[in-house]
Amino acid sequence: MRPGPRNLITDVAGLRVGNARDDALRSGATVLLGEAPFACGFNVMGGAPGTRETELLAPDKLVQGVDALVLSGGSAFGLAACDGVSDGLRAMGRGFEIGPVRVPIVPGAIVFDLLNGGDKDWGANPYPGLGRAALEAAGADFALGSEGAGTGAMTHRWKGGLGSASAMLEGGITVGALVVVNALGSVTAGESRQFWAAPWELGDEFGGLGLAGPYPAGHEPSPAKRLGEATTIAIVATDAALDKAGLTRLATAAQDGMARAIVPSHTPFDGDLVFAVSTGAKPLPDPALSPFLLGHAAACTLARAIARGVHAASPRPGDLQPCWREG
Predict the structure, then answer these.
(1) Does any domain span residue 4?
(2) Name one GO molecular function term (predicted).
(3) Could you give the angle at which helices 244-261 and 290-311 cross, rounded to 10 degrees?
(4) Degrees (nearest 5) of the Cα angle 94, 96, 100?
(5) Parent domain of 210
(6) pTM for this one?
(7) 161: burial class by Cβ within 10 Å (0-12, 13-18, 19+)?
């Protein structure tokens, strides 16, 4: 397993990512777009998710492909970023075809960033505009850290952010991850700067500090954020041909990466969610063994992406938490 050429989710050919941010708002939106509709599944393991159109991703539901996925700040207000993306896709002629009508299918998920020091006293919801701007910015290269939906993200100790990573497997399959890290838990061990995700680091992609030591026996972590202020949301992607049932399983396996990189994770107060998508470009090299390997790769890649999001966060005036780079 090695990183792709960009070490971004867009190493999965046919995928693009766009970011939009509002520094006064201290929030933003991120969009994953495919050249064509892609198959999608999802899994939720947090107790407080905020989502749109996830029910149609179940394997027994009619729609087999989605046009885009949206990750956004803004709590429930941020779900409106999907509206801006839907409007933009409609203008492009994209969407599920029903007779002469096309309906863009745009599931989304949000993080809570309403108490991060930004100006939230808006007259009109800003998130549709942020979603549309993120869609229009979509490309193969995009910034990490304090960008897009990670603009105002925070964690237990460090400023959070937008992370991404990729892995190329020996069988020719690519796996990528995209994540907004806004967790109740900690991404580093104790008072150190060592990432919990260190065992899965490739090279020095998030500092190369090596393995983190364990918490002392019996350690009981206390939340540093108010209950309800958290959530980590992610997308894992592959070019391997998987249907909605296979992608639901892939999203479930990828949640292990969240648990490896954030301690604690999947709390009642996080909305931890993973979407899994497939472009379907490549057949599974081994239908019996490949799903096992893909699940492992997805978990490892998501853990790396989480650490990279925090590692890349940049300081801005009014920050309520330090950046890892300045720790």
Answers:
(1) no
(2) aminopeptidase activity
(3) 40
(4) 85
(5) 9-326
(6) 0.95
(7) buried
